[in-house]
Amino acid sequence: MATVVKSKKACTVNPLKMSQPVGGALAFMGVRGSMPLLHGSQGCTSFGLVLFVRHFRESIPLQTTAMSEVATVLGGFENVEQAVLNIAQRTQPGLIGICSTGVTETKGDDVEGFITLIRERHPELAHIGLVYASTPDFKGAFQDGWAATVTRMVETLVEVPSGPPRRGQVNLLPGCHLTPGDIEELREIIEAFGLVPVILPDLSDSLDGHIPDDFTPTTLGGVTLTDIAGMGRSELTLAIGEQMRPAAAALGAKTGVPYVLFERLTGLVANDAFLMRLSELSGRPVPAKYRRQRSQLEDAMLDGHFFFGGCKVALGAEPDLLFAVGSFLVEMGCRIGAAVTTTESPLLERLPCDEVLIGDLEDLEQRAAGCDLLITHAHGRQMAERLELPFFRLGLPMFDRLGAAHQLTVGYRGTRGLVFDIGNLLLAHGHEPGPDDWRLPDVHEPAAATLAAD
C-alpha cells in the first residue's frame, strides 16, 4: 500500500499534468464528424491545438468561443451562439462538443442553459448534436477531463433501448492512457471472439495517422452518433481504467447494460482475465493466435527478467497509466523508486511502492536521484540528461519521437513489446565490462612485503 501525498509547493515549476479541457477535447475527437469547441480565450485553444499537432502530427479539429475580458464579465452566451452557428455553417459537423475552461467556470456561465436557448432560437441545428462537459482547468487533470466528457456523451447521446440486446455487441470505454494503437489492438482482440465492439471514444479510427481521400474540417473518423445511440442494446460494457468507472456506471444506470472494469491490460495476468471474460461472453475458446502470443510474452519475460530485476525506476504519468506500467514493472522484478502523478485516483494507494506524490516534474527529478531508469512523457528529457538516466518516453505529449499514436502497451503483444523496448534501453545504458574490471594485484607487492618482513 502506497501513501498518497500532495505537493505543498506554492506553484508548479515543471508541469507534469495537462488540463481538463485538453482531455475533454481529445475525447470528442473520437466521434466521427465532431468539432471540439473550448469555451474560453483563444490562448487556451491555441495551446491545446499545438500540443495535439506536435504529438499526433495530424490535422487537429479544434475551435474556440474566443472570450475576451468584457465578454467574460458580461457572460458568454453570444460567443457560444456565434461559435456554434459558424461551425455549423462552415464545417457541417455531426457533433459540436463544448468544453469549459477556467475563465468561464470562474464566471459561472450556464452553458447547458445556453444550449437550450440556442436550440429554441435555431431549429435548423436540430440535426447537430450539442454536448457540454464541465472541465475547469483550475482543478483536476487530463484524465479527469477525458472521463467527465465521456460520461457526458453517455448521458446525452445514448438512447434508452427499445428492444432486446443485440447478440454479440459489446461496449468498450477506453481510458485516455490508451493510444490509438492500443484501442486498435483491443478492437482486433474483441472481434477475434466474434463480438462487435462499439468504442467510445474511438481514436483508433480518427487519429491513427491515415490519409483521407478528401479533406474534412471535422474529425476524420471515430464512432458514429448512431452507434453511440445504440450502446444501450449491448450485452456488456468493458471499461478500461479506473477513470472510466463513472461513464460505465452512467451507461448502466441509463440503459441497464452491466459493466466490467479492467484496471489495466498491461501484464500477463491482466490480459488472461480480459481474454477469459471475452471467451465466457462469446462462448468461444481463446483463439490459437492469442495462445501463441501469450507463450511469446512468457518467453520475453523470462529473457528480460535478468535485466529488470532490481532496477530502480522513476515514474511520472497520469494515474491509470502509472498504475498499469508501474504494476507490471514490479512484476518483472523492478522497484519503484519514485512515483509522481497528476490527480487523485483510488488506484494510487494500491501501487506497489512506498509513496505516490501528486506533483510536477521538479518533484520527480528530486526523487529520481539514484534511480536506474526514468519513464515519463517528452517533457522529462532535460531531467534525464541532468540525471544521466536512460529515458523511456510514455504518455502524452510525445513530440520528439515519431509514431507516438501507435505506441502499444496493452494485450500480450503490447506487453511483450514493452519488455523488449525497456529491456533494450537498460541493456544499452548498462555498464560494459572492460579490462579494469578484472585488474589483478601487482605481482611484485607480495614479494616486497616478504622481504620487508625478513
TrEMBL record:
GO molecular function, one term: nitrogenase activity
InterPro entries: ChlB/BchB/BchZ, Nase/OxRdtase_comp1, Nase_comp1_CS, Nase_Mo-Fe_CF
One Pfam family recorded for the sequence: Oxidored_nitro
A GO BP entry: protein-containing complex assembly
UniProt keywords, alphabetically: Nitrogen fixation
Pathway connected to this protein: Cofactor biosynthesis; Fe-Mo cofactor biosynthesis
Domain Nitrogenase/oxidoreductase component: 19-426
Entry-linked PANTHER family: LIGHT-INDEPENDENT PROTOCHLOROPHYLLIDE REDUCTASE SUBUNIT B (PTHR33712)
Family, as annotated: Belongs to the NifD/NifK/NifE/NifN family.
Function: This protein may play a role in the biosynthesis of the prosthetic group of nitrogenase (FeMo cofactor).
Protein name as annotated: Nitrogenase iron-molybdenum cofactor biosynthesis protein NifN
